[in-house]
Description:
Largest sheet: 11 strands, mixed
Amino acid sequence: MLTKLYEKNNNPKDIDRIVQLMNDGGIIVLPTDTVYAICCSGLKSQAVERICKLKKIDPAKHHLSIICSDLSHISEYAKVSNATFKLMKRNLPGPFTFVLNTSNNLPKIFRSRKEVGIRVPDNNIVREICQELDAPIFSTTVPHETDEDIEYMTDPELIAEKLGDQVDLVVDGGIGGIAPSTVVDCREDHEEIIRQGKGILII
């Protein structure tokens, strides 16, 4: 199923339907400010496990990331020093993933590695959904095989064709990108860029 949403002035019923689907443990494809991502409520362990199985991710070995609607929600799910908070404030919303030590408010699946990636994308669609959900959104990029045309990842209609029977909904937020987020490790209370992607970090 494909649903069209916009950066502004969406029908509240469309947002409510998506939020209800996620609260019921559904998984959906959402646009971000980088690439399209497979998402679910970060508080629904079975939905997170379902996405990990779809992406062939081992949660014990793979960094898991969540989307927050704004900076005020981050401290609920991760441990943030004053210096790291100021760094994030300078760069978010934006195409960055900050790796932080996790708190006890996330399900056990996140605590197996004791860290979590935090995103606040510069995309009003995903942030509006996250705000209405009142929970973090677990997200990981849509799957891509090495011999597959990467352009499919930018087109929600092509994503729906490929993943339609594996996800509950694809949100069409327009043509997406192919550059991943820049990943910044802040667990030791100083920043270290461990993957340079879209965006230049403002130190």
